[in-house]
Amino acid sequence: MRKLSVALGLATVFLASLAMAQAGKDQRRSGYQDMGPTLQKMQDDDTANPAMLYVQAGEALWTQKAGAADKSCADCHSAGSMKGVAARYPAIPPGGDRPVDLEGRINLCRTEHQKAAPFGAESEQMLDLSAYVALQSRGMPIAPPNDPRLAAFRMHGGQLFKGREGQLNLSCANCHDDNAGKKLGGATIPQAHPTGYPIYRLEWQALGSLKRRLRNCMIGMRAEPFDEDSEDYIDLELYLMDRARGMTMDAPAVRP
Amino acid sequence: MANVLINAPGTARKGETIELKALIQHPMETGFRPGADGRLLPRNIITQFTATWNDIEIFRMKMSPAVAANPYVSFFAVASESGTVRLRWTGDRDFSAEGSVTVTVT
After folding, report:
1. How far does B6 lie from chain A, in Å, by closest CA?
2. Chain A residue with Cα closest to B67
3. pTM across the whole model
4. What is the CATH number for A193?
């Protein structure tokens, strides 16, 4: 009997992997693919996607001189050189020993290159500029750097994703791996791929960062969100970007 | 001035009905929400949106606190002559913003 159930179990595993191989398809879906056609249309039309209002502001900031160096972003970078940048962060900056996300990288340029005060973590200006930079990667595949130094941080991010926490004793994976595609209240549980950040979330009626989105989920799990400047966010972002490797960037996206 | 995005066809045939779409950045603070300190945030909304075609008013709309932030308006007009469509938003705290597009009618 025992032998039979083991054999049956193995057969099931074999058939399941065969089915997956035959389907041969990437089973991953972005938040964009999980949205209805009306919202997809809103995102696709640059004059209807409210995130583009922030991009406009970001473009103006890009050319504005700032700090003791009296330099603008545009004095050192062409907008074209930002192509693909949002698709590969977090990354370790030159001379650094731990990864920073795109916002952290922008603030490094603020402090080191412009000799200006860093932008507030989720300030309007940071959102505007990161939306403008992220837009340059629209349509490109997510491509985290193959930097072996990132492995330990990414692994920690994976532990944060899979570990249970909070009063409901849930992990991110419980929803986003195990129950993705099902409904939670009125919302479809997405697979949590960070393809579109910063996003214009209709519920927020504003543009928001990936950190804000993660914080939202942690509050939903009745867990304590990480501190604003916690490195745990970056590690989790690293894990999410790796999990979404190859998926198409659709930033700045609209989400319900 | 507030950021504005306008979508209108650059050309239209005489007599054709065209769609004009406009998006503007505005918090549309309702006046009913408490802030972090527990006190009501003062109302700050756009109260009126108008469109003129060669200075003749073709569309007017009143807005209320129930309208979401960053309001998006879409409306239709019959293209009768080439010219400038001017859009204007006004509201609380002397808010005023403008945008325009030219439409060539053939």
Report:
1. 6
2. A205
3. 0.91
4. 1.10.760.10
